[in-house]
Amino acid sequence: MTTTSIEYEAIIGLEVHCQLATATKIFCGCPTQFGAVPNTNVCPVCLGLPGVLPVLNEKVLEYAIKTGLALNCTIAKYSKFDRKQYFYPDLPKNYQISQYDLPIAEHGYLEISLEDGSKKKIGITRLHMEEDAGKLVHAGSDRLAGSSHSLVDYNRAGVPLLEIVSEPDLRSGLEAAQYMQELRRIVRYLGVCDGNMQEGSMRCDVNISIRPKGSDKFGTKVEIKNMNSFNAIQRAIDYEIARQAEALEQGERIRQETRLWEENSQRTISMRSKEGSSDYRYFPEPDLVAIEVAPEQIEQYRQSLPILPAQRRQRYQAEFGLSAYDANLIADELATAEFFEQTIALGSDPKQVFNWMMGDITGFLNERKQKLSDLPFTPQTLHELISLIEDGTISTKIAKDILPELLTDGGSVQKLINQKGLTVLSGAELSAVVEAVIQANPKEVSQYRSGKTKLLGFFVGQVMKQTQGRAHPKETNELVLAKLQGTD
Questions:
Q1: CATH 1.10.10.410 boundaries in the chain
Q2: What is 427-485's CATH topology?
Q3: What are the backbone dihedrals phi and psi of residue 451, each rounded to the nearest 5 degrees, phi first?
Q4: pLDDT of 14-32, one tens digit each?
């Protein structure tokens, strides 16, 4: 891309589709699990066969309201479903049941952190429920162009979705990626969506236009469809801003269209002209009744919400002294945050808990592609481990050595170190080892006493080697120093 002479401002809004973590589809009892044999999770209802009627899954409504509340939205007193008409092979009914003019939630916001540490509120225009379409599988290509033929898998048809539409408040690819990351944290905290973008259970369409900086008029909007990673969102937006700016500089008009992000070439490519809402010929869904939720029920949902990521991050900085970066790391997943808090509640130092969780424990989990919740390791076990280090019963090295076994098998730290004979050596037993090391290295002793005091570390290391890391660190230093200086 060439450099432009005019400074442009991007106007960006996101439409995010979250696949809800319900056991069954939105209007029928078919299962929703990912990866099933094609066209096995289907029935007459989700295939739109004649003579069948949809029935709303109550869990979908609950999840929609909880998400709306978490995003500071107003929950509608009266809401309804609509038919969105369009014809495509993956849409078995040739219409999609969605919500149009009366969505379940509107007028909310989500707050993101900017690079300079400041906060920015991103408006939420609306949140509505709808059913997903099926999936086209193109043979020989990831797109229709270049494929020899296409197959249709209707397992996903009728899977419940929440569509969350932001206001055009975002100004860069980085801001958009941060918005998506925070939204993903929230839906995962709520348990309404697993957020697995690589499986398509959370995906994003970007609406983007540019205008000269200082202008209050919107430019022509371009949509980029179905991006499923934070990096792709950021790169696609940054590319599209540069593409549109270059086109305007060369006197071209920006066309209102839908484009795709091509990962291999790192560019957006034209897909089709962009439809307007009139093209979908919305009308109220005649087979579903309107939705009215009692205020008391909404309040029950509000009271059941977990403490959300932003609140936890603030608390971790204010109460536990973590940096903003560290607070963000530990609050990223609800299970991790709860484990962290439960360990601290037992009396462990917050920074010690953070260091163990984000260091050795995370390394173990990443290596084995596991989650903390998959293991028998508990907050009580971590608290016991840290306590035994602090009171000198074991060294940090011993703790690191036995951690994999504790993570795999759980159980008592004290019992394990007793079984393995791993308690820290001290007193007369340690003094005897120090004396043996001093006697075995007369040359180094002479050099130390001649002024090469850095050799202290050599002697301490030899003691640690002889004891396989079981020597009490502080006491070892004191004993070695006393022996070398002849005060013992």
A1: 427-485
A2: Arc Repressor Mutant, subunit A (1.10.10)
A3: 120, -10
A4: 999 999 999 999 999 999 9
* pLDDT tens per residue across span 226-245: 788 899 999 999 999 999 99
Can you tell me which residue has the tokens 């091509």?
262
Letter for the amino acid at 429? E
Distance between terminal CA atoms of the chain?
74
